[in-house]
Amino acid sequence: MAFKEDGVIESDLESGVGKELYDYQKKALHRIFDRLAARKENFNLLFQLPTGGGKTVIFSEIARRYIQQTGKKVMILTHRIELSAQTSRMLDVFTVKNKVITSEVKDLDDQDDFDCFVAMVETLNNRLNDEAFEMKDIGLVIIDEAHYNSFGKLLKFFDESTILGVTATPLSSNVTLPMNENYDELIVGESIQSLVDMNYLARAKTFAYDLNLTSLNIGINGDYTVRSSDELYTDHTMQSRLLGAYQDHAEGKKTLIFNNGINTSLYVYDTFQKAGYDIRHLDNKNTAAERRDILQWFKETPNAILTSVGILTTGFDEPTVESIILNRATRSLTLYFQMIGRGSRILGNKREFSVIDLGNNVARFGLWEAFVNWEHVFKNPELHLNAIRSDEEIQREFKYKMPPELRERFKNSEIIDFNIADEYDRLVKLGERPKAVIDLSVDQHVKICVENAEDLWDAKELAGLLGDEIEYRARKYSHCLASTTKNYVSWLQDEYKRKLNVRLIQEYTLVNN
């Protein structure tokens, strides 16, 4: 194919054709065209760029440039009808004559009138297999959201075409179909941190909560099952934790809540509505009209809260989102980045957004903006998947740190830490009963409550704020015992709180006497 070396020319971009690209996007265009020009025939190239980096803008300019240089046509494949429509609109901006092939399109008698076609993978596959029409003179096939890997079934129809896949995460959604089997090479674009530093993406302020997720089950797709997630996240304690996290870090901000199950999302809707917040629920059972109305409401309402299930992870771009809540756990790195990416768009004075993690996802994958070696992930997907930390490992390695706003409530105490594991080992070596460590821990909590309270009621209020730390210490103690049940840990937490309450009453009774 007749690609020009160094194919993108800045003067063309400045001539009013399409829209002006950012420098990093121009750099990506140069690299892509250089590789395609160098490899010539039968070459499948994969390009990675973070969510919000402008992949659609880049491949729309690629389509325009390719058509101009070669005279051949371009096919762009998506996995959702909304993405097809968005892509078509962007191609219009770049003055690329395009046609969207929907399920209503039964033939292509007019294909000579267009230079580019946009289609959902399944729709095009059905048409080509039914021999309803034949695509002519397609030189370049661009695969949007290529990590879904569903386009493999179409390769036989485009064996003479060059394939360009684009994705934010070059890791296949199907573990049995690694991306390195379909693509010859990966080009890695700018990192999230780089785009943040250059003010192209908003900076994430992350709040991660430690949770016991050992009750979650992993399904055949490698991620947590909806059933086990619903059982955990519809629990009153988890709903209270979610509401408290929102009130602490996102209240008054436009917030998007991601859940793993419809039941969970409906519970979230009910919890927030009863608390007096303006919230809507959205899932794939909503009609197209209902979805449009809900998303329009979300766009126009400053402090809106939208709780959803899966449907908004791709093809949804609402720059006014100020807070993302992951009210679910996932083992999918792709889904992790997709969810957080919904809040990363820059808009007006918005240069920061909040991420509230209620699924140990940060502990599992690292911070959203942390470096990821995508070349390694692309070439060694099995090593990456096997390296994902288990929930048991996360639980054992987690170290509780009192949040700054809570630490302020205990400012009269110089020392607030207590190491359960170290005290357990010390007592065992001394021949003391292991459970004495719980008594010592309670004593320490009594001490810091009394040091920062004016009376018993004040002390009890402070004790009530220690729930997360008490839960953490109870789990740490259970880890020391090596073999305990979930019911035992739950009982231990309740017993701990009862002892703390009794000890506070005793402390103030002694003082008054």
Describe the structure.
With 513 residues, the protein is α/β, with parallel strands linked by helices. The protein folds into three domains: 10-190, Rossmann fold; 196-371 and 383-389, P-loop containing nucleotide triphosphate hydrolases (Rossmann fold), CATH 3.40.50.300; 404-512, no CATH class. It contains 21 helices and 13 strands. Strands 3-4-2-5-6-1-7 form a seven-stranded parallel beta sheet. It has a six-stranded parallel beta sheet with strand order 8-13-12-9-11-10, sandwiched between helices. Helix 10 (288-300) links the parallel strand 10 and strand 11 (305-309). It is elongated. The protein starts with 9 loop residues before the first helix and ends with a helix.
Brief descriptors of the model:
513 residues; alpha/beta; Rossmann fold; 3 domains; seven-stranded parallel β-sheet; six-stranded parallel β-sheet; 21 helices; 44% helix
Strand coverage percent: 5-15%
CATH class placement of the largest domain: Alpha Beta
Total E-strand runs:
13
Number of domains: 3
General shape: elongated
